[in-house]
Design goal:
Order of helices and strands: HHHHHHHHHHHH
Helix content: over 70%
CATH class of one domain: Mainly Alpha
CATH topology of one domain: MetI-like fold
Number of helices: 12
Mean pLDDT: 86
CATH superfamily of one domain: MetI-like
Radius of gyration: 23 Å
């Protein structure tokens, strides 16, 4: 009992982690499943066919490629615009700054159904009712990813030490040199984090996309539609790949951070 009391926090933390990772373990396990029937979601046998025949599910690869394209394009645009907005909000004083800070949080606080229906009403009233598709999804994703980028980059800027930039200018660095050699490297981790968050939100979104997709089908919409007939096991392969990529990015970032700290010491 004494050992349990001393390690209670650790044990509770491990239980929470196990609880959180059980669904991921199920997804990884099902990616190797050879089901007897698509209508019963259970592990019936081991197979590598889901990995070797990745595009065996009809229409899945097309939907996946569409989500990747929209996610990458929306991430680039939202990251650029959000970073510029974050610099403006943190580094400049202008009329309406407080109101802008408040408005930035509204898309994050509003339910997705509200944002999606509002964007749909905007597209319909603008004459795009018959042209819903790739570009309307792209615009919608940029709109709701933008707030997350601004908040993430702004937090990084607010926690940055201004003395480093002042020291660079005291050493006769030009404003351009100060930005690219001091400011930008310090803000870059926040920008990268905001970009990864934007891609995750865009790739994963269903509600806003479903309202503004028209005849297009993204990967989340494909999964929702396939669930009505039986989810193909290749969907679990996509989930496993995304999970492994996320782990690889986190591990790579941690290794890079430790190497930098070791180099400084």
């Amino acid at each position: 009992m004494r050992w349990i009391r001393e390690h209670l926090v650790l044990l509770l933390g491990l239980l929470v982690l196990i609880y959180m990772f059980v669904p991921i373990f199920v997804v990884v396990l099902m990616s190797f499943n050879d089901p007897v029937s698509r209508n019963v979601y259970r592990f019936d046998g081991f197979t590598l066919d889901n990995w070797t025949n990745f595009c065996g599910a009809q229409g899945m690869c097309d939907a996946l490629w569409l989500s990747i394209r929209i996610g990458l394009l929306a991430t680039v645009v939202a990251t650029i615009l959000g970073t510029l907005a974050a610099f403006a909000l943190v580094r400049h004083d202008f009329a309406g700054r407080s109101a802008s800070n408040l408005l930035i949080f509204l898309p994050m606080a509003a339910p997705e159904i509200v944002l999606g229906s509002s964007l749909l009403a905007l597209f319909v009233s603008s004459g795009f009712a018959g042209q819903l598709g790739f570009w309307t999804i792209f615009i919608a994703h940029v709109m709701f990813c933008l707030s997350f980028v601004v908040v993430t980059v702004r937090a990084r800027l607010a926690g940055m030490d201004d003395n480093l930039e002042q020291a660079a200018m005291d050493l006769y660095a030009t404003p351009s040199q100060t930005f690219w050699r001091v400011t930008f490297p310090l803000v870059l981790p926040g920008i990268v984090g905001a970009a990864l968050l934007s891609f995750s939100l865009s790739f994963d979104d269903f509600i806003i996309t479903n309202l503004n997709a028209g005849s297009e089908t993204t990967f989340p919409m494909y999964v929702w539609g396939a669930a009505q007939r039986g989810v193909p096991m290749q969907v679990n392969v996509v989930g496993t790949i995304m999970f492994l990529l996320s782990v690889a990015i986190v591990v790579a970032g941690e290794i890079t951070s430790r190497r930098r700290r070791a180099a400084l010491t």
